[in-house]
User: Which sequence fits this backbone?
């Protein structure tokens, strides 16, 4: 007899871990929407944020102070990137910007290494991973917490984009950069704000992923998890990033449990890419995307 | 303070440092005047206007020689954001509304473009809605889903929210039904007579443009070849065939959208 309760458990576990993918993907989408560039440095930013936070805590800083300090560092980083990288490269083709973010990612990783060393750190954010029982289905407390945090962040961003001037400017730039320029919007400020927002996303994602995997250099590779999400959801859609993340998370876990045994296991790592590639053939701009992916 | 608000002197511009789009364009706009910039496809109207509003760099274009003086100041090295705040506000060819924003959000974006205060925004919105009552009805519609005429009004309204001293319009008649074009030019004329707003309008539709403008400049292959009072140019039947690319019927333009009334 098929165990539906177990299916449900796997599905919920998958969806919740998918939220973490969405979080990483949103960082990409924010920057892609406003600058038309795939920010390769998103993973490095995520690592840098997590590493800064952990190192501060290990040196005796309290949780709250460390969080505030890391936030300040990420904001400074966002502004610095706009000044030093984006502004000089304005009006260059997207591929140039992409290469710049590639370079940036190595610089950020190098800086992280110089500042904080290369050892692996454990990160305890005070949420246990003990599952609890909801009507016979076991749900991880940590997954639920992570999903709640990610959900709140998305809600906050949504309110920000809907009701503030900077938010309106952001949407205007995302819609039509040339018109935004013509209207007199200060694009450098919008870019600085967007990189700051991406920095905040990187911080939250870095802490959640760091708590799960430990804070180490391979953490920057979680961006590879975001790529199928982006292909699925579209590079320019925040809603797409959320839905894409959930789909990928669920697909991975379901594939691992139900299809994996046929291949002798271990398909979780690449099942998402298979799904993403299949979709790419059918719908190149993703489920929610508008611009063509080739723009990258 | 002179009578001249904008003067363009021997302007030359290229794209990608290679394609020469404009080679010798001169004209001026006096305070309170409507000047039409006429010319056939590819004559260099948009390039000239984008040089005036320092938007060329964003199209990978560059001014190679000549001077652009606005209100006594050379504006070649100003940024577009500075220029909008100084009062030179463009309305782009093809409207370029923010498609996913509502009509009102589009207008507010124009106000943000000059760092307007909240109370000023409210007052300016009412002024735009008084000029284009149709926009008030559509204020919470997504701009990308409104008609071509409404989008053109939104684009003009958005520019007005920046409290311009010189409005620089690139083909406001493009793709619109004659009746809609008429309404838009009437509104522009009204701004000109009631508020003394100066306008520089590029148009292929020379009939309408000459009827509503005070003076006109004709561009041909990147050069200004003819200038004069619009009333006089209107009497010269030959300019259409000579400079504006072909038949005297040119102003009957295709209407791609529903004949939305203004
Ligand atoms: N972004 C660009 N890159 C390269 N060349 C361009 C660009 N824009 C315009 N050109 C070229 O510059 C010349 C002048 O074009 P421009 O757009 O200024 O003419 P126009 O008078 O506005 O024409 P239209 O009535 O078709 O809008 C043309 O030969 C055109 O091909
Ligand atoms: Mg043009």
Assistant:
């Amino acid at each position: 007899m098929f165990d539906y309760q177990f299916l449900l458990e796997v599905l919920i576990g998958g969806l919740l871990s998918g939220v973490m993918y969405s979080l990483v993907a949103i960082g990409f989408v924010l920057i892609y929407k406003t600058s038309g560039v795939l920010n390769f440095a998103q993973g490095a930013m995520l690592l840098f944020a997590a590493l800064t936070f952990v190192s501060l805590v290990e040196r005796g800083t309290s949780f709250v102070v460390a969080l505030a300090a890391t936030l300040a560092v990420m904001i400074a980083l966002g502004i610095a990137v706009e000044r030093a990288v984006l502004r000089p490269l304005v009006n260059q083709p997207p591929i140039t910007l992409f290469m710049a973010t590639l370079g940036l990612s190595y610089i950020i990783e190098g800086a992280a290494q110089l500042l904080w060393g290369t050892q692996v750190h454990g990160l305890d954010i005070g949420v246990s991973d003990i599952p609890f029982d909801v009507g016979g289905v076991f749900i991880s407390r940590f997954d639920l917490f992570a999903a709640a945090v990610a959900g709140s962040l998305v809600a906050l961003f949504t309110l920000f984009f809907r009701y503030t001037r900077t938010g309106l400017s952001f949407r205007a730039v995302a819609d039509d950069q040339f018109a935004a320029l013509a209207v007199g919007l200060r694009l450098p400020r919008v870019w600085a704000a967007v990189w700051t927002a991406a920095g905040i996303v990187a911080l939250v994602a870095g802490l959640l992923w760091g708590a799960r995997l430990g804070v180490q250099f391979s953490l920057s590779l979680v961006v590879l998890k975001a790529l199928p999400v982006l292909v699925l959801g579209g590079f320019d859609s925040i809603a797409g990033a959320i839905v894409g993340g959930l789909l990928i998370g669920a697909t991975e876990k379901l594939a691992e449990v139900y299809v994996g045994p046929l291949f002798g296991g271990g398909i979780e790592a690449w099942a998402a890419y298979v799904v993403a590639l299949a979709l790419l053939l059918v719908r190149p701009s993703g489920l929610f995307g508008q611009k063509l992916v080739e723009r990258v | 303070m002179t009578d001249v608000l904008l003067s363009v002197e021997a302007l030359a511009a290229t794209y990608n440092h290679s394609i020469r789009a404009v080679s010798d364009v001169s004209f001026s706009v006096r305070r309170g005047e409507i000047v039409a910039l006429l010319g056939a496809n590819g004559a260099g109207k948009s390039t000239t206007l984008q040089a005036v509003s320092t938007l060329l760099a964003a199209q990978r274009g560059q001014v190679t020689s000549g001077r652009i003086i606005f209100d006594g100041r050379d504006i070649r090295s100003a940024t577009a954001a500075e220029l909008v705040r100084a009062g030179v506000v463009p309305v782009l060819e093809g409207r370029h509304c923010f498609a996913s924003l509502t009509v009102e959000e589009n207008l507010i974006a124009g106000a943000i473009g000059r760092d307007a205060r909240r109370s000023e925004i409210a007052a300016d919105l009412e002024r735009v809605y008084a000029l284009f009552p149709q926009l008030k009805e559509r204020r919470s519609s997504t701009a990308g889903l409104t008609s071509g005429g409404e989008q053109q009004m939104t684009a003009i309204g958005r520019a007005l929210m920046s409290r311009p001293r010189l409005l620089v319009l690139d083909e406001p008649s493009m793709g619109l039904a004659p009746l809609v074009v008429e309404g838009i030019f009437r509104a522009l004329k009204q701004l000109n007579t009631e508020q003394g707003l100066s306008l520089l309008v590029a148009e292929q539709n020379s009939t309408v443009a000459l009827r509503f403008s005070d003076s006109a400049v004709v561009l041909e292959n990147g050069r200004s070849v003819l200038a004069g009072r619009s009333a006089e140019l209107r009497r010269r039947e030959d300019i259409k065939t000579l400079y504006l690319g072909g038949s005297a019927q040119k102003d009957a333009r295709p209407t791609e959208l529903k004949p939305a009334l203004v």
Q: What stands out?
A: Strands of chain A lie at 131-134, 137-140.
